[in-house]
From TrEMBL:
One of its GO terms (biological process) is amino acid transport. Keywords: Amino-acid transport, Signal, Transport. Residues 32-395 form the Leucine-binding protein domain. This is ABC transporter substrate-binding protein. It comes from Sulfitobacter sabulilitoris. InterPro entries: BCAA_transport (IPR051010), Leu-bd (IPR028081), Peripla_BP_I (IPR028082). SUPFAM superfamilies: Periplasmic binding protein-like I. Residues 1-27 form the signal peptide. Belongs to the leucine-binding protein family. The lineage of its organism: Bacteria, Pseudomonadati, Pseudomonadota, Alphaproteobacteria, Rhodobacterales.
């Protein structure tokens, strides 16, 4: 199934695409076939999966047409190869996703797999990818454990892992001279929320060593109602309240907390909260500090500089197509696909212009660098398999005159300021006081 035949919005279209998996098998020599896996249904679809896929299909159409992107991405397809995409819904858990991955590689005979929002899926897939010798890009998931606990030949993550979310938050509070005598947290009760809180407390211990750690609340994933937790936070009166909640959980928490004035008593700091702005609009309170795991969304639009043409080209196309501005998920899909294009064309330059094998792609991607709307991406960790990238943190402010949310007081952090160096695990880096960090 080609991209043009699936040009429809929302989860219904995505499910239709997924149903097309029984179509033609192996891609031709003039076609590069990608399996894309992301959430098209379930709680992660609205905030991450569908926006990512919408951004991905838009970019693929622009690349296939040729001449729609700024250089060096203005050439057609991947080195002249037409890009074909097979899309799979990530819902269903790790066991199901392992089977879907095998189907993509063995039945669909894709040339590369790009996928995974869930950290559980990102931990389950790499051993299978190496077993099958199938070139795979992890485009979104945040857990550092993928490459801290394992080593893989055919697997690459083109986005930074999540540790930089919370290092950046703490550095932002410090650089802006916030008074933080105490802080508390509300995070979802599973690995993502627990790891985010550990990263934030570890960072704060270095930058605000005298701050008192108050209550750490872990409501269940999908709780929806946070009355008891908000009451506890109001009683605590912590100077800062940290949350890595996402999707519907973050929307619910913000609406309920704002109604009770929590944002007026405590500074809200959201690890990667930009993705709920399109849904909340003016219901997102002013003065919330938030990031987007990368220079993504509103922070990228406000950045300026040499990457602005690239950012504006994709931003304007996305906004025109879907009637909403792009947040972090499409930005991460864009940087994965542009990295894949760079790797394919590098491999083709080295092999005489033929479509690269999985081994040639892996060799080309290892240690690769390229530019994306998110900034300059470097495969600098895990022996060239894990990306680092710059990050941005800003503060929300509603522009009533124009009817839109803005980020103000945005601070941009160099990749080597907020990511651990090669050979050091994230928690060790935090505990030792960020050795090797390079900050202006």
């Amino acid at each position: 199934m080609t991209m043009k035949s699936t040009r429809m919005g929302g989860a219904l279209a995505a499910l239709t695409v997924a149903a097309g998996l029984a179509g033609p098998a192996a891609a031709q020599d003039d076609t590069f076939k990608i399996g894309v896996i992301t959430f098209l249904s379930g709680q992660a679809a609205e905030s991450f999966g569908v926006p990512a896929w919408n951004g991905g299909k838009l970019l693929v159409e622009m690349l296939n047409e040729g001449g729609k992107m700024p250089a060096p991405y203005d050439t057609k397809g991947f080195g002249g190869l037409n890009i074909e995409v097979v899309v799979v819904d990530e819902a269903g858990g790790a066991t199901k996703q392992v089977q879907e991955f095998r189907n993509l590689v063995q039945r669909e005979e894709v040339d590369a797999v790009v996928g995974y929002v869930s950290s559980g899926d990102c931990l389950a897939i790499p051993p299978v990818a190496d077993e099958l010798k199938a070139f795979t890009i992890l485009y979104d998931c945040g857990t550092p454990r993928v490459f801290e606990d394992g080593s893989f030949e055919y697997v690459f993550r083109t986005a930074a892992h999540a540790t930089m979310d919370n290092v950046s938050l703490a550095r932002y509070l410090k650089s802006r001279n916030f008074d933080v005598p105490s802080f508390a947290g509300l995070n979802q009760d599973y690995a993502w929320g627990q790891d985010s809180w550990a990263d934030f407390t570890g960072s704060m211990a270095q930058l605000f060593p005298d701050a008192e750690v108050k209550t750490a609340l872990f409501p269940k994933f999908g709780a929806g109602q946070y009355g008891t937790e908000i009451s506890a936070l109001l009683r605590e009166r912590a100077a800062v309240v940290h949350s890595s909640n996402w999707g519907g959980d973050l929307q619910g928490f913000l609406i309920q907390a704002t109604a009770r004035g929590l944002h007026e008593r405590s500074q809200l700091a959201l690890a990667a909260g930009d993705h709920v702005i399109p849904q909340l609009q003016d219901k997102m309170p002013d003065g919330v500090i938030l990031g987007a795991r990368g220079v993504n969304g509103l922070a990228a639009k406000a950045r300026g500089g040499e990457l602005q043409e690239l950012t504006d080209t994709l931003w304007d196309a996305y906004e025109a197509e879907y009637g909403v501005f792009p947040v972090q998920a499409p930005f991460r899909m864009w940087q994965a696909l542009l990295g894949l294009k760079t790797a394919v064309e590098k491999a083709m330059a080295d092999n005489g212009g033929t479509k690269p094998t999985d081994e040639q792609l892996a060799a080309a991607m290892k240690g690769l660098e390229w530019d994306a709307p998110s900034g300059h991406i470097e495969m600098a960790l895990a022996d060239g398999h894990q990306a680092i990238q710059p990050n941005a943190i800003g503060t929300t402010k509603w522009n009533a005159e124009e009817g839109r949310m803005e980020l103000v007081d945005v601070e941009y952090f160099d990749a080597r300021c907020v990511n651990p160096p090669e050979g050091m695990k994230a928690q060790e880096w935090l505990a030792q006081g960020f050795p090797g960090a390079k900050c202006d």
